[in-house]
């Protein structure tokens, strides 16, 4: 595992070199408030490309910054974070039953055996109102019966991204524009810098165990539940799991670097995903409104999450990431 100390964090000349590329920069929105910066890539799934702090030694990254290929390939998976609409994580075999009919999402992305992360992350977003420290992004989905696996419900998704009070705030909202009810879930998919000393703190009640396809099998105890409460090492387990009934607050800490990032969420972000694969530099702690495969999952609503939006109904909630450095 690569161990990055505070003194060895790459400078802006290397890890953010894409900011100096005029072609890439033309499609970016940079927000600033004091020393904090947030860079948005609306054309790449409405993703967040970087969230960092200006320091005398260069940028101090609170999220893993995008790599140059992310812009060329238009791949949100290589960004700092990206929005999940109208559901989070996987749907088994890309299909589910809803309102007496089968919703077949087969073919919506041939890279994956199961439908993944909805569809908003695969499309460009429109830039709306903007100030120096805030921007509104919008995506509207119009179903196309000629596109295999297209989401069959019309909806509008929005993100208001703002740097305020020393923190990053993202308000996510959606409205069902269909004439019929629509199953729904949303979330954000942040990647954090991962070192040998990284710790994740969260109060959770249980973990969804998963099969080889990373699809949930049952909700129950796991050593990670207690470890998270005490401050779990990112290397402690091989995780790609949902955790139920968290306190809607998690802390990602780098004790050797004397800093931490607190993520808080409003209801209905009542579920949390931890992606911390073994022998891998990736680390995600994701606030979501539904478990993986929630449209197929058997269980009570508070266990699986998600909801059904009636025609015209809207939903909105805010996520906040607050950095803290020891003086």
UniProtKB/TrEMBL annotation:
Leader sequence segment: none
Gene3D superfamilies: 2.70.98.10
Pfam families recorded: Aldose_epim (PF01263)
Stated name of the protein: Aldose 1-epimerase
The species this protein was found in: Paraburkholderia metrosideri
Upper classification of the organism: Bacteria, Pseudomonadati, Pseudomonadota, Betaproteobacteria, Burkholderiales
């Amino acid at each position: 595992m690569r161990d990055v100390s505070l003194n060895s964090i790459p400078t802006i000349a290397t890890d953010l070199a894409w900011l100096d590329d005029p072609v890439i920069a033309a499609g970016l929105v940079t927000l600033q408030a004091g020393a904090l910066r947030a860079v948005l890539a609306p054309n790449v799934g409405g993703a967040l490309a970087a969230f960092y702090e200006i320091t005398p030694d260069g940028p101090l990254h609170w999220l893993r910054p995008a790599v140059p290929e992310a812009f060329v390939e238009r791949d949100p998976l290589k960004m700092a974070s990206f929005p999940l609409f109208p559901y989070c994580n996987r749907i088994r075999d890309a299909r589910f039953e809803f309102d007496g009919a089968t919703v077949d999402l087969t073919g919506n992305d041939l890279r994956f055996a199961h439908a993944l992360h909805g569809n908003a992350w695969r499309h460009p977003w429109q830039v709306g109102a903007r100030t120096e420290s805030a921007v509104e992004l919008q995506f509207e989905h119009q179903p196309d019966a000629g596109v295999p696996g297209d989401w069959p419900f019309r909806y509008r998704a929005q993100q208001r991204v703002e740097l305020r009070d020393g923190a990053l705030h993202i308000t996510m909202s959606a409205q069902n524009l269909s004439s019929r009810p629509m199953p729904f879930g949303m979330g954000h998919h942040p990647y954090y810098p991962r070192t040998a000393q990284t710790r994740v703190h969260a109060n959770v009640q249980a973990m969804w165990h998963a099969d080889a396809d990373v699809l949930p099998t049952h909700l129950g105890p796991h050593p990670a539940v207690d470890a998270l409460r005490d401050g779990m090492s990112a290397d402690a387990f091989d995780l790609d799991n949902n955790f139920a009934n968290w306190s809607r607050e998690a802390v990602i800490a780098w004790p050797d670097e004397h800093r931490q990032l607190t993520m808080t969420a409003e209801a209905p972000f009542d579920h949390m995903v931890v992606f911390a694969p073994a022998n891998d530099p990736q680390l995600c702690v994701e606030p979501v409104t539904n478990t993986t495969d929630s449209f197929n999952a058997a269980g009570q609503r508070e266990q699986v999450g998600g909801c059904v939006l009636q025609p015209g109904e809207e939903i909105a909630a805010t996520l906040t990431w607050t950095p803290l450095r020891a003086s």
